[in-house]
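Would you mind writing out the residues of a protein together with its fold in token form for me to study?
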Amino acid sequence: MRLRKFVGDIILFFCVDCVTFLLMCIASYPQNLTHIFVDREYGYSIRYPDGWQARSYRSGVVLSEVNSIDGKSGLQIRRVYRKGPTEDFTMGGFVENYIKDFKKDMRASLISKNKRVIGNISGWVLTFRGGRGNTKYLLKSYLLPTRGGYHIYIFQAGIPLDMREKIEPILDSIADSFRLE
């Protein structure tokens, strides 16, 4: 009888912890991605919240952008093409070269580099700190190789550093909503 009560208490304790964890995850993840942007030419979609706008923006490698209405934060979707298979190409090498070039071009310092699933693609999330004039920025790059690795989608995002806590989860959720058809 005591064993049964003990096991019951453990199960109850475990269930309460699981529910608490689940509620915390739901509360911290922006749920208001109510709008969808579809780029039929390049075969992808992305969701974004109220107070943001999305549009096609064809300029070099840039395909589209999603911006806050106040214009202080945003994310550009880019696609680069890697010509033909080469034996020396690795995604890890691409990421390292990207970091080196980004740090030089943007005068930024790398804060973090994480490999994870973004949308429906396994890729990399890079976080940098940079500045323009007197304003400090959090700069994020999401690198997503397509199957075969001939195209790499790159999301470049920027927000004023003092808005990081509020806006970074929104940028992450927009990036996580990416679907390549």
Q: What stands out?
A: The CA atoms of residues 75 and 91 lie 22 Å apart. DSSP finds three helices and ten strands in the chain. The mean pLDDT is 83. The longest helix spans residues 2-28.
